[in-house]
Amino acid sequence: GGTRFRLDPGVDARALNRERARTGRQAVDGRAFVAGSVGPSGHFIAPLGDVGFREMVAAYREQILGLAEGGADLILAETQFDLAEAKAVVIAAREVSEQLSRHLPVGVTMTFEGAKSLTGTPPLTFIDTMQNLGVDLLGTNCSAGPEQIVDVVRAMLPRLSTPLLVQPNAGLPELDEEGRTVFRLGPEDFARQCLAFAEMGAKFLGGCCGTTPAHITALRAAVADQPWRRPVPPDPSPLVLTCRSSSVALGGENPLVVIGERINPAGKKALADELAQNLHAEALRLATEQAAQGAGGLDVNVGSPMVDEKDVLPSLALALCSRFELPLSLDTSDIEAMENALWTQPGSPLVNSISGEPGRMEQLGPLCKKFGAPFI
Question: pTM for this one?
């Protein structure tokens, strides 16, 4: 909760987080690594809420800069429930790494309610998006006890190639006689149930709500003699596009995916006239038509002489991602328009395309890396 969104007015987020990390380093006295824990902001990124993506990244950058200055060895975004916000943490951490000229490893764990996060992201789509971003450590924490999140962890495995972290609660929460929330799963049972994650290939195990030092001690003893079994992702690993609620894998053994290319003003006067005014009705109609006909993704091209692409492309991309559960293909030769559109996407859109002129890869390559966007 160390962002400007959760702290009292007037609190210096950067300074507070710096002191938190310094205190952690003093406590471990060289015996352990210190992770800077970054939790949810309590707000939603547009279009789900009223906070812009850039504003969210800026708030996390303040927090993470303080944690890094205080000596945190890595950043761990925990209990995330929205894909866009998790992505904002990763981007902020990368910007801090660049500012400090220091590689700051980043881990992200998401919490799920059954088969999806609070804002509708399945476990595999979370994994796909974070791996496109090059995150160092992935997994899940909170929400339920070990037995209840086995299916969540199993759903992460088909394309997982990143070290996996699992931190369950000490069972399901209950209310005691005085109305207080309690977790009744004891240390030995907790440790025994967590063995399933070691067998599934988790490299890091821990505990979340209700766990105590005794739980972690029992867990360490239970896995002391367990060899690590690295999950084996399919070979070759496919290129994967994502939106907030789904993944589309391309190549390898995956079926053919049709990407609809009708959102293009060439030869469509009604669409061109609307885009010149930054209106979306015709584009949304074409998107609805293509989705109904089975498109696996939507190409978005607003290039026309009267259209300001740097404003219209991000505006339309945001409108499309708020209405359709399909990944987007961002189709423009305008680099500023491309970057502005990438700032609107919670998942991994396709960049269409990086052409062969000198300097294009040097400009677009870093953008694709920063935003976790596959490209052609």
Answer: 0.96
